[in-house]
Amino acid sequence: MNIEKLVQMKLVNGEELIACYENFGEGGDEISVSYALSMSPLEFEYEEMADLDQTRSYYVLRPFISYTDDLANNVGINPNAVIALTTPSDAVVEQYLGSVNQIQETLGLGTKPEAVSSADNVVSLRPLPSKED
Known about the structure:
Blueprint: E1 6-11, E2 16-24, E3 31-41, E4 57-63, E5 75-77, E6 82-86, H1 90-106, E7 122-125
Antiparallel strand pairs: 1-2, 1-6, 2-3, 3-4, 3-5, 4-7
């Protein structure tokens, strides 16, 4: 996987995904991506949130296609379903790589992308402190 080709997409149904862009299909009928993970917001009950930082949003990264054999398989996305496309932040990329590695290991394919270690696949988003601190 080429980390420089990672994209974050917002689809017309509101779903967001992070994936490795492969190519734009011949005829412009699909966007081909691999290692596609959906960013799903975590919903908590009030009691569960007592220990969480209220200034953060929490997301879980899950395979975009359920029950896939290998995240490396290409997925075709209808370009008409995409309303926004951007480069994910460094914090999201770091968590994404850890999640891809964990999911691939679960599938028995643990030799996929090099990833940072991660306790789980939950992304907690808040601006990172400056590197000068």
